[in-house]
Specification:
This protein is an alpha+beta fold. It contains 7 helices and 16 strands. Strand 4 (53-57) and strand 5 (63-65) form a beta hairpin.
């Protein structure tokens, strides 16, 4: 049984995957049967062995799951509740990996835990970026979304480091993935504090739309991770998908 390339678990060592499959509990679903509902308590990650299912989150387009795909694998590390409703499109067979068995399997294996942590961080960043793109442009075709991801640059700022200064050209749109930023109006010692910028928020969208210069200076108040989308790429996608951010 194989894990798909887009699965986090599928990127792990083959010997570990063999041991993982041994702890899986088989589940059968009839066509139209619900596997889980948004808000349900997390009872484990599911590997699709056979069949097709439809995953629908509260926001964003539905996603079809097929053989090799894994549902909620990140929650094996973070727990929580289900964020989506999943229904079988046809008779399907799945393997459930309960979180307690998974934790026992990885306990004490520091290299594996480090790899999982790295993969989980990358997957979370990608999910956060997906939500930002959805809020800006609405639903996009996979090819367009993948193209946008290729154009985006990732930036890290240390506390006190400046992202841009007031009156700088509005040559890019930024989105904060992690950390904290603060906006200041230039003038006086240190400038006048305007507002704090939190993860998930975009920075500089007015300047990139209007072509105006930056209206404030933005600095990191904590170590921060951002994505940068150049104005030329923004204009190209906005011409086909008018921005819909709130």
């Amino acid at each position: 049984m194989n894990f798909s390339a887009r699965s986090m678990l599928g990127q792990l060592d083959e010997s570990f995957l063999e041991r993982l499959l041994e702890i899986g509990e088989s589940r059968q679903l009839a066509a139209g049967e619900t596997l889980c509902t948004a808000g349900d308590e997390f009872d484990g990650a599911y590997l699709v062995a056979e069949g097709r299912l439809l995953e629908q989150a509260a926001e964003g387009p539905a996603r079809e799951l097929s053989a090799g795909d894994v549902l909620d694998e990140l929650q094996l590390l973070t727990a929580g509740r289900r964020a989506q409703t999943v229904v079988a499109l046809e008779p399907s067979r799945l393997l459930l990996f309960p979180p307690d068995r998974f934790r026992s399997l990885v306990a004490g294996d520091e290299p594996l835990l480090e790899t999982l942590s790295t993969l989980a961080s990358e997957r979370l960043r990608d999910a956060q970026l997906g939500q930002i793109l959805l809020r800006l442009f609405g639903p996009l075709e996979d090819a367009v979304r993948d193209h946008l991801r290729q154009q985006i640059d990732w930036l890290e700022l240390e506390p006190g480091e400046t992202l841009f200064r007031q009156a700088d050209p509005g040559d890019a749109l930024y989105a904060l993935i992690d950390g904290r930023l603060a906006a200041f109006a230039e003038g006086g010692a240190g400038g006048v504090f305007l507002n704090e910028i939190l993860p998930g928020e975009t920075i500089g969208e007015i300047a990139i739309v209007t072509g105006a210069h930056r209206s404030a200076t933005v600095k990191a108040t904590r170590r921060s991770l951002l994505v940068r989308l150049a104005r030329s790429d923004f204009d190209a996608i906005a011409a086909q998908h008018p921005i819909v951010y709130k």
